[in-house]
Amino acid sequence: MEGELPVWAIGQALDGWYRSLGRKFGPLSRSQRRLMKELEGERPIKVGELADRLALTMAGATRMVDKLEALGYVVRFRDPDSDQRYVHVVLTDAGREALREADRIYWEKVAQSVSRLSREDQRRLAQLLRQIAGEGGEAQR
């Protein structure tokens, strides 16, 4: 309908771009990378908090942590000085290395996919995506 916002076209374009970046970034899947990005800081995070941040069920977050732990990328523990019902997760050194590699490959794919755009269009795209994400409108680079 004329005058309507082309949200379906925007959604389709974002889905297409997302697919073009791929499902795997080196040693990590897209979802594993997202979870590990949440763990990138030095502070341990509760499994329930990870589930909330990633919009996963507790069971889904637990399964993902199980797999990452089996790969040696994260460790789980209970803090002896806090409520023992809560399980915390942190990255291992191997996990940090896997995340660095996954990030490198991810950024290469993003750079390749936007290389068809002019620098000004790249800046504008970054600005628009930040606005959508609620992070402010001015591009940082």
Give the termini separation.
37 Å
Question: Strand sequence of the main sheet, in spatial order?
Answer: 3-5-4
The CATH class designation is Mainly Alpha
Query: Count of helical segments?
Result: 6
Give, in order, the helices and strands.
Answer: HEEHEHHEEHH
CATH architecture: Orthogonal Bundle
> What fold name goes in the CATH topology slot?
Arc Repressor Mutant, subunit A
Shape: elongated
- What do the pLDDT scores average to? 89
Low-pLDDT regions: 137-141
**Largest β-sheet summary:** 3 strands, antiparallel
Strand content: 5-15%
Number of strands: 5
Let me know the CATH homologous superfamily: Winged helix-like DNA-binding domain superfamily/Winged helix DNA-binding domain
**What is the CA-atom radius of gyration, in angstroms?**
18 Å
Helix content: 55-70%
How many domains is the backbone divided into? 1
Secondary-structure class: mainly alpha
In brief:
By secondary structure, the chain is mainly α. The protein is built from six helices and five strands.
Please tell me about this protein's structure.
α3 (47-54) packs across α4. The chain has one domain (27-133): Winged helix-like DNA-binding domain superfamily/Winged helix DNA-binding domain (Arc Repressor Mutant, subunit A, Orthogonal Bundle), CATH 1.10.10.10. With 141 residues, it is mainly alpha-helical. β1 and β2 (28-29) form a beta hairpin. It has helices at 7-21, 30-38, 47-54, 58-70, 93-114, 119-133; strands spanning 24-25, 28-29, 45-46, 74-77, 88-91. The radius of gyration is 18 Å and the shape is elongated. The chain is built from 6 helices and 5 strands; from the N terminus they run αββαβααββαα. The strands form 2 sheets. The chain has a 3-stranded antiparallel β-sheet. Strands 1-2 form a two-stranded antiparallel sheet.
